[in-house]
Amino acid sequence: MIGQTISHYKILEKLGGGGMGVVYKAEDTKLKRTVALKFLPPDLTRDDEAKDRFIHEAQAASALQHNNICNIHDIDESDDGRIFIVMDCYEGDTLRSRIAKSPRLPDGSYKGGQELRIEDATDIAIQIAQGLQKAHEKGIVHRDIKPANIIITKDGVVKILDFGLAKLAGQARLTKTGSTVGTAAYMSPEQARGEDVDHRTDIWSLGVVLYEMITGRLPFKSDYDQAMVYLILNEEPQPMTSVRSDVPPGLQSVVTKAIRKDQDGRYQTVTEMLIDLKSLGDLPRDETSRKQPPIERKQSSIAVLPFANLSADPENEYFSDGMSEEIINALTKVNGLHVVARTSSFAFKGKNEDIREIGKKLHVEHVLEGSVRKAGNRLRITAQLIKIADGYHLWSERFDQPMDDVFAIQDEISLSIVDKLKVTLLEDEKGALAKRSTENLEAYNLLLQGRYSLNKVTRESLQLAIERFQEAICVSPDYAQAYAEMAFAYHVLGFMDYLPPKEVYPKAKALALKAIEIDPTTAEAHVVLATVKLFYDWDWEGAESAFRRAIELNPSNVHARVHYAYCLLFLGRMNESLVELTTAKSIDPLSDPVHLGIVLLRMGRLEEARDRFKKSTESKPEYANPLWLLGHVDVLEGRYEEGLSEIRRALSLSGNNAIILAGFGWSNAMVGKRDEALKVLDELRERSARECIRPCLSAKIYSALGENDLAFEWLERAYEGHDASLAAILNDESLIGLHQDPRFDELLRRMNLKR
After folding, report:
1. Cα–Cα distance between 255 and 125 in angstroms, integer?
2. Residue 17 lies in domain
3. Is the pLDDT of residue 527 over 70?
4. Which of 37, 92, 566, 721 has the maximum number of C-beta atoms within 10 A of its C-beta?
């Protein structure tokens, strides 16, 4: 073929080929331009179906005019009857070769972090999505999106090739029923089954391509196509974060949603996926911005330890704690700066531990420590920024100023940290760093007092916190943060079963909405709104949207991450839940692994769940919750006496907590100790006359006893009372005995859930 002239095209060289065609570089002798010719392979010239599909490629693609789609100029036939398409010829690499250029990992797979950075991979995915968006608008489905069909030009423009498998909406199928068309590794489940496909199959394939760009490996990998198809239909891929630690959680969520096996669970349009990809950060939005190099953001890490209270009055501890928390909250607004969550930093409060050991335990490079002395209207604040590696003080300062200057002091400390860590501040971050909900010192002081009480999490302290927040609002009626934190206090009162859900959750919701009305960027208010939608309203879409908004506003908000993980768990999206918990753990390294254990338990990975609960009990032997969960797993695995013994000890540690007591009753029912289970039911019933006892607890025990009518009677009470435990109904192993009863699906329907 090389050197031949076909029609008015002189063949220059072979560029490549695949199952549906061989491509040559050629000179258009009429128009004096370089083009690419794609020929149907000779062995397929007698295959009418392949020939029709090849012609269909030209017809479909020629109707598309878009910067991210290969331009088709003509379709022609050689003298010997071979059909070919004339299209643009691009200088550049295929995405397949770009991925292959990344260095290999020890297991032979490719690492996507060198040649192909995360921002590059995301930009490529955005451009592919833009091309598909145009095709889908015209009713065209590509059906073979893969790295070999993507060209990246020398200018960095992505071009989608090969619409040979495209299908115009409404056009008759070109393939036989039950047959598959495409490349096995990138096929959607419905495509692998040989079913009719729509535009959502391209969304799946794009998700697979993005996964491969980021990790250097396929989400479903086998040497044999049939085995690969089995994996696509039946297995879940590893989260990208298990392969590559720097994957942003938002990007993991996009990929997870794109490659859901259920078409209805996927993005319903590529436009939705495109919006989420573009919202991940400072990513290119158009051709002009795409060519500009991204701003280099230095990644530094810091833990802000609780400032020591050196005041004569120990009651001023609320103020020293508050100073630390305010600095933490300010620093979390800076991209490129990893800030450890309050709960992990405050684990060292009152401890005289070596600063290097603290840094090692918190996985940070720097620590900020300090002290506060408050006397009347005067403040003396000291602060030191220390580099963990050598103990060197990068910055230190002492402030002797009136209370009126407290906001300026906080700003100076935060800005000095950012400066010394050499983190580049963007314009919007400069404003966010100094932003606060009030300039009223009295209201601010009341907020800190309320937050100090809220963190104690007793019924009395929560009530006191609410009083202080209310006083702050009276002094400063537009204090969004006070509304948000009072909303959170009401949520905790309900979640801890101190007060009935119907008494507290509507108040929490109203307060959260008020905070958002005053300041839509109040992340804590969105967290509370999301938790109310999750545990009280059973508004799953609303909850997910609010959680994602909260995380967008403050990616370091651990409450948002953990509760969002539970939202995903309740919806059966286990891998996504694990991703959120993994991210939360990186922010809050000393957090209890019990949350991860619960997700693993619900996934049926009992041995792994047991390891997490055991680790939790070893590190915090005074905690009852992981101990009873450890016993729960032992019962599920058939270690009955060991499990019951652990739950008894957990009951003793907890002071006879109702949830653990119900777990003891359920376990006794499961091992055939009916009388013991009935005793627990009697105790729960008696206690419900004087305290908040979740009806769902009794339903679980009746289910284990095989008393389905009574179980559903108590589930109905749980539904009427908006029992928070009911949110987990879809995958709670304690209720599995009810799954075959039609009443179970009816209850799911009323809760806006489906299996």
Report:
1. 11
2. 5-88
3. yes
4. 37
